[in-house]
Amino acid sequence: MFGVVFPNRSFPMDASSFTQIDSTHWILDMTLFLGEGYEQVKEMCIFLLNELSLPSGSALAVYVQSPGSPFQYCGAVHTACPSAVLALLWPKPGGQMQILASESPPPTAKIGISIEDPTTLPALNMGQYHHIEELAMKVGENLFNFMQSFCTTEGGKLVVPMDILERWFKKFQERTKRDPEYLKQFSV
Fold first, then answer.
1. 50-65: string of b/e by CB count within 10 Å (b at 16+)?
2. Higher pLDDT, residue 142 or 37
3. Would you tell me which of 56, 98, 172, 173 could form a disulfide with 68, CB atoms 3.0–4.6 Å apart?
4. 5, 133, 168 from 130: Cα distances, Å
């Protein structure tokens, strides 16, 4: 029905590489597949094998789950869009679903595939949204750290020079021109 490729990490795999839970759900245990480095897998290409492989009016949704976390939607493919490269933004491990090791085997990271009605899926590609959000947070953190080095306090308030944003942006631009690899530190 479908195939997947983890760019620079795998050969094409079909649905038989996944554990089929029922007629509409598949799971790939990333810990067994890749070991402990699942969070280093940042994207996945999923594709339909042919136009008849998916029931009419359906979509194939992709979800990721870190150990002990709930599944998080990443995106979907359907007959009008039979392939996609999806950002895999793994949720933070743990949380409400954390299971004690003494109760059962430790939880593992998983990719879930599900046949669903496309009208029930989020309109936005949430994986891409979270990717942009994390990137913005890293750039914002860089700006904050730069500003902090010029801050003073007056009356319980932080005071920064008026031209601090201009100075930061100029330094940021110069650094990216000198070192093209610099921007890679901001990728998620």
1. eeeebeeebbbbbbbb
2. 142
3. 98
4. 21, 5, 25
> Which pLDDT score is estimated for 102?
43
Domain ranges (residues) in the chain? 2-120, 129-183
Query: What's the pLDDT at 25?
Result: 94
Q: Where are the beta strands (DSSP E) in 36-156?
A: 43-48, 59-65, 72-77, 83-87, 110-116, 152-154
Closest CA to 81 of 107, 64, 62, 95: 62
Per the CB < 8 A criterion, the answer to whether 107 and 12 are in contact is no
Give which of 20, 16, 15 is closest to 48, Cα–Cα.
15
Is the model more confident about 18 or about 182?
Answer: 18
How distant, in Å, are the alpha carbons of 13, 44, 76, 126, 127 from that of 132? 28, 17, 18, 10, 9
Taking the C-alpha atoms of residue 13 and residue 49, their distance in angstroms, rounded to an integer, is 11
Position 187 scores a pLDDT of 61
Note the pLDDT tens digit of each residue in 154-167: 887 878 888 888 88
Q: Which two tokens stand for residue 96?
A: 């409400």
Residue 6, judged by CB atoms within 10 A of its CB (0-12, 13-18, 19+), counts as: buried
**C-alpha span between 45 and 139 (Å, rounded):** 27
Question: 49 in the Ramachandran plot: left (φ > 0), alpha (ψ -120 to 50) or beta?
Answer: alpha
- Please, are residues 59 and 77 in contact by the beta-carbon 8 Å criterion? yes
